[in-house]
Amino acid sequence: MIPGIDTATIRRLGEIPFSPARIWAMLLRYLYILRSSWPRTLELLYWPTLQMLIWGFMSQFLYQNSSYVARAFGVLLAAVMLWDLLFRSQLGLSISFLEEMWARNLGQLFVSPLRPYEWLLSLLAMSVIRVTIGIVPAALLAIPLYHYSIFDMGLSLVAFLVVLMAMGWSLGLAICAGILRHGMGAESLAWTVIFALAPLSCVYYPITTLPGWLQPVAWAIPSTHVFEGMRAVMFQHVFRFDYFFGAVVLDIVYLVAGGALFFLAFRDARRRGALTQMGE
User: Fold this and answer.
1) Residue 16 near residue 113, CB atoms below 8 Å
2) Which of 136, 225, 235, 273 has most Cβ atoms within 10 angstroms of its Cβ?
3) 3-state secondary structure the chain
4) Which residue numbers in the chain have pLDDT < 70?
5) pTM for the whole thing?
6) Count of other CB atoms within 10 angstroms of residue 60
7) pLDDT value, residue 43
């Protein structure tokens, strides 16, 4: 229970119907925060573009010196951009959440009629905006620099984007739950958890590269299905529906689990009165 609010008031707040206007108001708040600070916007552009440049030039060098790697030139660039999309979908959700924590604003938000799921929907919408700002310029810049367009994958690219963003959201929800439960000491999870999954996601190499005993663990991660599917599209010109549906099923499981963890941690933090205490 939030200190200073009686049970009757909380019950009345619980009867307030769903409101798209409140979701829009929270989304506008995050857009205004983003617009008011150019370093935040620059950071969204910086890392995807930097990675695209580094890996692109390296791939171009290998392209000119190895007939084998020549086949993998576009695959490396596509893998870099898709991996960055996964990272930024998770980070986009986590950063908007952390901005409220850093400002000690959770208590003020939830004495209003705002519902937790409405706040969560605004965080997801802000994640999409952050991903778009970060990834699209880097993908467009690759066209004149390397004569490569990730958009050539067509509808396959759309499927990969949906799966990776859903995975990023599930990770972001679980990370936010950990921060709500353990306080700001756990905020480093927002930058570290995703990279622990990179070796098992097989971003730059096929899953057969992993030891046999580790491959089932890798198949339990949605991103592994995406990157295996990406290589099938680019090398064999085949969209593997089995990879896609496997990733979708895993995403649903992880989203449900991440959402459950988030709402349980939120309810526990509100019961402990921690919403008004956490911050920098």
Assistant:
1) yes
2) 225
3) CCCCCCHHHHHHHHCCCCCHHHHHHHHHHHHHHHHCCHHHHHHHHHHHHHHHHHHHHHHHHHHHHCHHHHCCHHHHHHHHHHHHHHHHHHHHHHHHHHHHHHCCCHHHHCCCCCCHHHHHHHHHHHHHHHHHHHHHHHHHHHHHHHCCCHHHHCHHHHHHHHHHHHHHHHHHHHHHHHHHHHCHHHCCHHHHHHHHCHHHHCCCCCHHHCCCCCHHHHHCCHHHHHHHHHHHHHHHCCCCHHHHHHHHHHHHHHHHHHHHHHHHHHHHHHHHCHHHCCCC
4) 1-16, 37-40, 42-43, 46-47, 50, 53-73, 277-280
5) 0.79
6) 17
7) 67
- Rounded Cα distance between 181 and 104, Å, is 15
C-alpha–C-alpha distance, residues 244 and 63, integer Å: 29
Dist. CA 214–CA 209, nearest whole Å: 10
**CB contact set of 214 (below 8 Å; sequence gap of 6+):** 200
Are 263 and 174 spatial neighbours (Cβ–Cβ below 8 Å)? no
Helices 38-65/116-146 angle, 10° precision: 40
Quote the pLDDT of residue 184: 74
CA distances from residue 245 to 73, 163, 204 in whole angstroms, order as listed: 27, 10, 21
Please tell me the predicted confidence (pLDDT) of residue 5: 60
CB of 270 closer than 8 Å to CB of 182: no
Establish how many alpha carbons lie within 13 A of residue 188's alpha carbon, considering only the half-sphere containing its beta carbon: 2
CA of residue 180 relative to chain centroid, distance: 18
Q: How far apart are CA 115 and CA 270, in angstroms?
A: 13
pLDDT of residue 103: 82
